[in-house]
Amino acid sequence: MIKTIDIAWLGGILEGEGYFTLKQGKYPQIGLDMTSEDIV
After folding, report:
1. Which of 17, 23, 25, 37 has a CB 3.0–4.6 Å from the CB of 29, allowing a cystine?
2. SUPFAM superfamilies, per this entry (predicted)?
């Protein structure tokens, strides 16, 4: 089971470094662009 703290961590990373888009106009896609490998 996923811990609440892990969901909060992911939300923080995605809020700062991530993006949400629709691929081909209809498929949800979540991306993350960052250079700090130790975080991801």
Report:
1. 23
2. Homing endonucleases (SSF55608)
What is the number of structural domains in the chain?
Answer: 1
Through-space distance between the first and last CA atoms of the chain, rounded to whole angstroms: 20
Rounded to whole angstroms, how far apart are CA atoms 6 and 10? 6
DSSP state, 36? -
* pLDDT tens by residue, 6-39: 999 999 999 999 999 999 999 999 999 888 878 7
Distance of CA 21 to the CA centre of its chain: 12
Compute the radius of gyration of the chain from its Cα atoms: 12
What are 32's two structure tokens? Answer: 């993350």
Record the pTM: 0.64
